[in-house]
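Forwarding the complex inputs:
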Amino acid sequence: MALAGAVLLGGCQEKLTSPGDCPALCPGGSPQVVDEILSPIIGADSSFVGYVKPQAAPALLVSNGLEGFEERAVMRFPPRSDSVGVRDTLRSYTVDSVAFGFTVLARDTLAPGLQLLVYRLPPFIDSTTSYAQLDPAFIPENLLLAVPIPDSLKTGTIRAVVQGSDLSRVALAPADSGVLSLGVRLDSPSFTGVRLGASAAGNGGVFLTYATVAIPDTGTAKLRTFPLTATFNTTLPAVPEVIDSTLLTVGGSPSARSLIRFEFPSRIRDSATVIRATLELTPVAPLTGLATDPVRIVARGILSDLGAKSPVESRFGVAVDSIPVGTSATEELEMVRLLQQVWIGESRPAGLVLSLTPDLESGSFSRPVFYSSRAADPAVRPRLRVSYLRSFPFENP
Amino acid sequence: MRAAWLLGVLATMPGLVWGQSSQFGVRGLGFPGRGLNARVIASGGAFGLFDSESSLNPAALAGATALTSIFTASGAYRTVENPAGTASTRDTRFPLLMILGPVRQTGTALGVSYSGYTDRDFSIVSSGTLDLRGGAVGVTDTFTSRGGLSDLRAAGAYRIRDRWLLGAGLHVITGSNRVESRRSFEDSTFLSSVQRAEISFAGFGVSGGAIRQMGPRFAIAALVRSDGHVNVDRDSTRVATVDLPYTFGLGLRWQLAPKLGLATQAIVRTWSAANSDLVVQGGVGANNTFEVALGGEFTPDLQRPYSRPVRFGGRYGRLPFPLEPGTEAHEYAVSVGSGMRFAQQRAGADLGVEHVWRSEGVHSEHGFIFTLGISVRP
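Prediction (whole assembly, two chains):
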């Protein structure tokens, strides 16, 4: 009997699942799915510019007319001292060679024959320096070197060395306080562009000096290396961007973000279970940019509605989608987690901010522009397609 | 030793037989419990109105000879068939806990029991296709219920000159039911959803019973019980009141021979009282039920009546909550079992095995229910 009890109770696993023969075996019926389109509040959506400045961008843009105009990268390195301390004594050194390094983040792999043209610029450039101010410096006399980008290179570091008689071209004069500034253009048989690493992302331009320090007392010479990374860099477009605030612009430089507000019905917020939410945006024009370098767009909920300065929820509920260059199709951004976790779970305002992903903000050739709620044609306005389950009518009992 | 071997074989059979949770507990208040001890179940329930260690008839408490605690466990293994398919499931329940004992030199006995009133443990899975956003999307729905109603009884009984046993009981009907509706989509862009609710129940009932010993070989028992109504709260909000049935029972016991006792009983419950309340809530409704049982107990050794008795029986009944309007579910069962006492009869174990068939139209199920009762007399 004890054995019987042990066996009986030892098999306490339950397997309760039966095939459902509705409606006989479906108390309360089946869950009802509703598909509803929500429109944004008319006139309450807009674009705002200036979130990420070009000098804080995670990438530098260099093109020879990809967008119809040229874009150049400029960078300034910190002062290089003209002496080095050896055994408590400052000693002068002799430059043997210098090297420049650049990181290629993205390029059109179908465009061969690229090379970066590196120019020496007036030393003191900053965020107020314009394309027009520096354009006269991009002359053959200031060309330091041409750095070929191997056709096989998709991403990675390229490096060029200056030595011998060419070293005079990179000599740092005391009047310049030892500061070197460079400008980078793109040379290519076709219109294309390259995204280069920037100091904000920790992979900006590198200026490396190899020197020999002569020590007379000992008759020996020591080799020294002075690595410098750019402390300032930015992208200078030939044509400044113009943002139409009646459209929804995302990206560009300085970066633009778009704020869209919705009326979120309480019948959904309070008692429905959202199973899918798709933000549909109609592009104004086919997306331009660097081929094979898709742009990633991100939607984040807002913690409070403060207009352009609305703080966004970045911990969860973030919706991301990739848009291929050249597409003119309606962008469909799946954002069910944003609705579930931010709008409903956190009871935040029913608004969202569209931007490019942080690694692309102010660092992408692509700048998606979508119609806003102000569009005359309602069919091209933003819309949020929400699929949800109504509250299940559990039988009592 | 041979009996222990047989019982061991019986107990291992659940591992060989595949079964499922009853589909006839899906609607209404669930699948009704019986409040019977393992030894009564082994005889088809026929001795239920006479058994002091079951919570059916409060008058039977007067038959208690010592302070006793009862623990009952059951494992059900069934195969379910309906138009959506066939499935095998299993479940384990603890349908009866009881403590009873006589009050010395008074002729009275008192007892407290906790038994299952209805069982609402089930999971139902169905699949289909929805037209969503212009395309067909496959969905799978799972409706799960856990819990049910329980019957907490406090009862007393009085013995009048060994001829009459009279008893009365107060019942608290309580419990909760956690229900969950889950839908998943084949298209992963649609998130699975889960909606839950907790339904709680509260009600009171009274019962009265009598047993008349008519000579040394014959006895008759009667039961009347009213459960009033049960209040139904969903997520702490009162949503319904459901009338519960009156119960009428009549039982006969006949000691055919010194070694063979027979019994039969019939029980009627007026579950149709709940019909209108359930229909208003969107349910199918409820029907009155009738249950009749016939069984016996053969005692091989009269010197040791608790050693290896052979119990057998059968029963027929109707179930209260139909799956579809206008229909009625039926239940048949045959049973067998035995038991033993040990530790100077201070402890005992009983095992009952039922083979059950249930059907209602195109819905049917069959399987085995193994019930083990442990009794301790400290």
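The first helix of chain B runs from residue 2 to 12.
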